[in-house]
């Protein structure tokens, strides 16, 4: 054996050993990452809502009925959903990662358990907006524990909160806590979180969050699983003797395909979750649309107020223009603009529109006695009521007089005002489709 | 009659596209690639013809256009059938040894992939047939424009018209709204069901394009794995389930362009380059980011293929130059670049965007573990000192990722990263093309790798 051959052989031996070490490291590292969420110890935290002092610094969007040893009882205040938000927090870095909320619904039909949409609200800094995660939970009069994985590292969380999105009955909230769970309990929480559906809604074209399980996103488990699988398969193949009758190529028995299959297994898992989620969404969508008229479908998808407004605006003469005044600057205006275009045109300037639709606006000021309307400190226009769904939702017809009349003489002029408003003002392009409120600007 | 017209609106351009792809086909191309690429090419030609008709005549003349496309398609297929009856010419490719049979693992993988694809296509077809898309935000721009164009049978070009270029944001490219408007234009009335059908067919054609394209490149198994990886990206599937956004269509066109660029690198067959050019122009005309994505592909192509281009005969230079001239002229007329110019004027580092970008790529499930796999694939390719097609794969992947990331890291669009609105959606535009190019770049290696197991008893 020449010295060159010896060097080549020793290089080959070193690279083979190195490859085996990498594979072993991958398998062990992946396995450790998979185990950690089930055995990690953390410090507990609890916000016990048993006495009035507990509410100091808290934010309550609801009517406080009472607070006692059983918890705090809240009732919806007006149209707003019930929300309870903690005072500013300083959670330890090593806090537990599962938030448990104990709640019960105090409805008239005691004992009735129904699916409710419950949201976990959180902030990472003091701001007006909150981010949220949501899940449908079956809650009744009996106290129910609702578990959420913390969506951010504990030390980054500024406030936590809970919101009952569609609840009109009083609710009792016992506590919010980060309890220490046993490994068995964690397995249960993980399976529940994996099985929870992620509704495919408007913002789902922007991202898929995926299940958050024991404080880790799905990708954490998938990557760990892939590392474990590839490492284990590769290592097994590398340790088995190569060559001989069963392996004439000397590459190990089916090692490449086995590694490929191990790498694809987590992908199949992810795809299985996503396809299952999709099929559940299809069932829900078909159930919502089945046997319904066009107007009923619009109501099912966009809400009864938009369906009502659509029907009224559709009755207006072709070529009419309309303005939508609403606190939600995106959804009602854009939905109706689409549904009615091009026969009836939405414009931004209510002073130039022939019809003015008001849908829950804090800026709208309508004086029925004087027949005047203004919004957001703008000029007053003469109007008459055409139709009313409620005090917050009504349709007005603008009279061709008052400060807006001159502008409306020429429809084109009104339209160019609309166009200028759209092009000049970034705020006029507001879009409310992310998890945060107050998103502005034209999306790419 | 409406149903017949709606079906014709889908099938006739598809048939024309397939005829064109088949016209230039390679001996190793199977029906999958012809069907997949045929749909895309048909849609691109349809959009170009429709926009030209609107501009020249003021209305769509959808019926006449359908007749002309059908006539072209029929003649092309007749000619093709005659050509196919003749003895086969020699192969452009030197075909590598293909695995003859399948190992147990390969069969299991293929069965799982087939089951998953069939399940998804079933769900998505049911969705398109039963659920209208009236509640989605796509209606504020893309479907809004389509509805206006289809209802008016016109493309208003008067700037003071509220429906100038279809209304909504006038600077958004028109290709996607034109495609959505086509079937309703022909059927004579707006319908979400027919308007959004192209999204389902683009998805189907993307699967066929990737599987078929890689099939003529290497073994069938890597092709179907790549097709499965692309088709199962959760965000991509959501774009088919909630149709109306342009991102899926951009992703399909860019993937098709990348496939044909890589084919030309292997075959030096001039029509492949022309088809790639058509897809790149279409990418540019589909969305505001299209110009950047197409430019990255073009630059990577030039950087890796300029030596071959220098060896062209003069006639080919003339044809290539003419195509380039026409393409630039068309794009200048068809696309409003004011937003892109404004973005370039306001360039500034936005460090806050890093965190959401990481979240969208690596933490959330929009792409599953795809970006982890892309990162690992890039590292492996770089460690192997890439050559030829591998360099193209690495350059395009890095270029597309850097381009999309820089939209958020260097422009005021960072606010859409901070509110988590668009990073995943923009990365989606490049994801299928990246998966495809990386698979093609590693094609020879993959073929050898899977063949190893096939050789085993």
List keywords for this structure.
heterodimer, A: 444 residues, alpha+beta, seven-stranded mixed β-sheet, B: 457 residues, mainly alpha, globular
The global form of chain B is: globular
Oligomer: heterodimer
The rough form of chain A would be described as: extended
Question: What is the average per-residue confidence, as pLDDT of chain B, rounded to a whole number?
Answer: 89
- Would you tell me the structural class of the helices and strands of chain A? alpha+beta
Pattern of helices and strands of chain B:
HHHHHHHHHHHHHHHHHHHHH
Mean of the pLDDT scores of chain A? 84
| Rounded radius of gyration of chain A (Å) | 30 Å
Number of beta-strand segments of chain B: 0
| Helix run count of chain B | 21
Strands ordered across the widest β-sheet of chain A: 15-14-16-20-19-18-17
Major beta sheet of chain A, specifics?
7 strands, mixed
> Which structural class best describes the helix and strand composition of chain B?
mainly alpha
What can you see in these coordinates?
The complex is a heterodimer of chains A (444) and B (457). Chain A has 444 residues and is an alpha+beta fold. Helix content of chain A is 35%, strand content 24%. In chain A, the strands form four sheets. Chain A has a seven-stranded mixed β-sheet with strand order 15-14-16-20-19-18-17, with helices on one face. In chain A, β3 and β4 form a beta hairpin. Chain A is extended and about 105 Å long. By secondary structure, chain B is mostly helical. In chain B, 74% of the residues lie in helices and 0% in strands. Chain B has 21 helices and no strands. The chains are: A alpha+beta (444), B mainly alpha (457).
Strands, helices and their partners?
The complex is a heterodimer of chains A (444) and B (457).
Chain A: H1 3-39, E1 45-48, E2 59-61, E3 63-68, E4 71-75, E5 82-85, E6 98-105, E7 114-123, E8 131-139, E9 144-149, E10 159-164, E11 171-178, H2 183-195, E12 212-213, E13 216-217, H3 218-239, H4 255-289, H5 294-302, H6 304-314, E14 321-326, H7 331-340, E15 345-346, E16 355-359, E17 364-367, E18 372-375, E19 381-388, E20 393-398, H8 405-408, H9 411-424
Parallel strand pairs in A: 14-15, 14-16
Antiparallel strand pairs in A: 1-11, 2-5, 3-4, 4-11, 5-10, 6-9, 6-11, 7-8, 7-10, 12-13, 16-20, 17-18, 18-19, 19-20
Chain B: H1 2-23, H2 31-57, H3 62-85, H4 104-130, H5 142-152, H6 175-187, H7 192-195, H8 197-215, H9 220-231, H10 234-241, H11 247-267, H12 270-284, H13 290-310, H14 314-334, H15 338-345, H16 354-363, H17 370-383, H18 389-410, H19 414-418, H20 423-441, H21 443-455
Helix pairs in contact in B: 1-2, 1-3, 1-6, 2-6, 2-8, 4-9, 5-6, 8-9, 8-11, 9-20, 11-12, 11-13, 11-20, 12-13, 12-14, 13-18, 17-20, 18-20
């Amino acid at each position: 054996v020449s010295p060159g051959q010896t060097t080549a052989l020793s290089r080959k031996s070193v690279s083979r050993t190195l490859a085996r070490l990498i594979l072993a490291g991958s398998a062990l590292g992946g396995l450790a990452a998979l185990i950690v969420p089930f055995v990690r110890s953390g410090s507990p935290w609890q916000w016990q809502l048993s006495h009035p002092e507990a509410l100091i610094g808290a934010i309550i969007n609801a009517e406080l009925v009472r607070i006692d040893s059983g918890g705090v009882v809240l009732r919806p205040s007006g149209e707003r959903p019930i929300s309870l938000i903690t005072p500013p927090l300083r959670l330890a870095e090593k806090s537990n990662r599962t938030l448990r909320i104990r709640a019960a619904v105090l409805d008239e039909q005691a004992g009735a358990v129904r699916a409710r949409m419950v949201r976990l609200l959180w902030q990472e800094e003091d701001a007006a907006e909150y981010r949220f995660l949501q899940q449908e939970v079956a809650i009744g009069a009996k106290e129910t524990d609702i578990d959420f994985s913390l969506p951010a590292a504990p030390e980054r969380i500024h406030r936590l909160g809970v919101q009952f999105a569609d609840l009109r009955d009083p609710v009792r909230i016992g506590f919010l806590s980060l309890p220490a769970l046993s490994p068995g309990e964690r397995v249960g929480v993980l399976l529940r979180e994996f099985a929870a559906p992620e509704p495919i809604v408007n913002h789902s074209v922007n991202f898929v969050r995926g299940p958050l399980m024991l404080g880790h996103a799905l990708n954490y488990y998938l990557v760990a699983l892939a590392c474990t699988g590839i490492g284990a398969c590769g290592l097994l193949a590398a340790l088995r003797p190569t060559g001989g009758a069963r392996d004439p190529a000397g590459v190990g028995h089916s090692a490449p395909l086995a590694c490929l299959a191990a790498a694809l297994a987590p992908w199949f898992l992810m795809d299985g979750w996503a396809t299952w989620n999709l099929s559940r969404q299809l069932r829900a969508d078909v159930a919502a649309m089945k046997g319904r008229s066009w107007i009923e479908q619009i109501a099912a998808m966009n809400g009864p107020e938009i369906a009502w407004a659509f029907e009224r605006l559709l009755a207006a003469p072709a070529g009419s223009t309309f303005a939508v005044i609403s606190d939600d600057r995106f959804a009602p205006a854009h939905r109706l603009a689409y549904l009615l275009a091009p026969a009836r045109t939405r414009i931004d300037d209510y002073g130039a529109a022939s019809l003015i639709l008001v849908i829950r606006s804090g800026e709208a000021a309508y004086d029925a006695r004087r027949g005047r309307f203004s919004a957001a400190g703008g000029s007053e226009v003469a109007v008459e009521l055409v139709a009313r769904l409620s005090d917050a939702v009504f349709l007005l017809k603008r009279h061709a007089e008052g400060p807006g009349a001159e502008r409306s003489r020429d429809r084109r002029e009104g339209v160019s005002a609309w166009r200028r408003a759209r092009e000049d003002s970034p705020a006029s392009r507001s879009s409310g489709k992310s998890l945060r409120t107050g998103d502005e600007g034209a999306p790419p | 009659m409406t149903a017949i017209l709606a079906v014709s609106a889908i099938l006739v351009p598809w048939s024309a596209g397939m005829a064109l792809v088949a016209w230039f086909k390679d001996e190793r191309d199977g029906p999958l690639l012809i069907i997949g690429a045929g749909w895309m090419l048909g849609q691109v030609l349809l959009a170009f013809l429709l926009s030209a008709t609107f501009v020249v005549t003021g209305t769509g003349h959808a019926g006449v256009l359908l007749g002309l496309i059908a006539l072209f398609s029929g003649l092309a297929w007749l000619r093709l059938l005659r050509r196919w009856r003749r003895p086969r010419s020699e192969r452009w490719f030197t075909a590598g040894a293909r695995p003859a049979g399948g190992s147990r693992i390969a069969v299991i993988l293929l069965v799982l992939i087939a089951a998953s694809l069939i399940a998804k296509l079933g769900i998505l077809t049911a969705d398109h047939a039963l659920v209208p898309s009236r509640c989605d935000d796509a209606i504020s721009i893309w479907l809004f424009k389509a509805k206006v164009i289809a209802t008016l049978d016109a493309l208003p070009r008067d700037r003071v018209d509220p429906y100038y270029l279809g209304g909504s944001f006038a600077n958004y490219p028109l290709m996607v709204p034109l495609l959505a408007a086509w079937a309703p234009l022909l059927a004579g009335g707006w319908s979400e069901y027919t308007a959004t059908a192209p999204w389902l067919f683009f998805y189907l054609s993307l699967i066929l394009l990737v599987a078929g394209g890689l099939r003529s490149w290497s073994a069938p198994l890597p092709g179907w794995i790549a097709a499965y990886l692309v088709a199962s990206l959760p965000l991509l599937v959501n774009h088919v389930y909630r149709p109306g956004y342009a991102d899926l269509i951009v992703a399909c066109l860019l993937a098709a362009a990348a496939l044909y660029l890589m084919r030309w690198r292997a075959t030096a067959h001039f029509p492949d380059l022309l088809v790639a050019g058509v897809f790149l122009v279409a990418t540019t005309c589909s969305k505001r980011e299209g110009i950047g994505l197409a430019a990255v592909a073009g630059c990577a192509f030039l950087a890796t293929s300029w030596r071959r281009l220098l060896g062209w005969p003069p006639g080919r230079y003339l044809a290539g130059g003419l195509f380039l001239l026409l393409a630039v002229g068309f794009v200048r007329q068809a696309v409003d670049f004011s937003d892109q110019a404004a973005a370039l004027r306001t360039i500034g580092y936005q460090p806050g965007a890093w965190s959401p970008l990481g979240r969208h790529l690596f933490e959330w499930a929009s792409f599953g573990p795809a970006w982890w796999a892309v990162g690992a694939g890039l590292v492996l390719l770089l460690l192997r000192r890439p050559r030829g097609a591998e360099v193209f794969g690495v350059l395009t992947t890095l270029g597309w990722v850097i381009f999309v990331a820089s939209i958020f890291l260097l422009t005021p669009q960072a606010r859409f990263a901070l509110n988590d609105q668009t990073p995943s959606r923009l990365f989606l535009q490049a994801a299928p093309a990246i998966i495809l190019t990386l698979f093609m770049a590693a094609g020879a290696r993959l073929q050898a790798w899977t063949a190893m197991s096939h050789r085993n008893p």
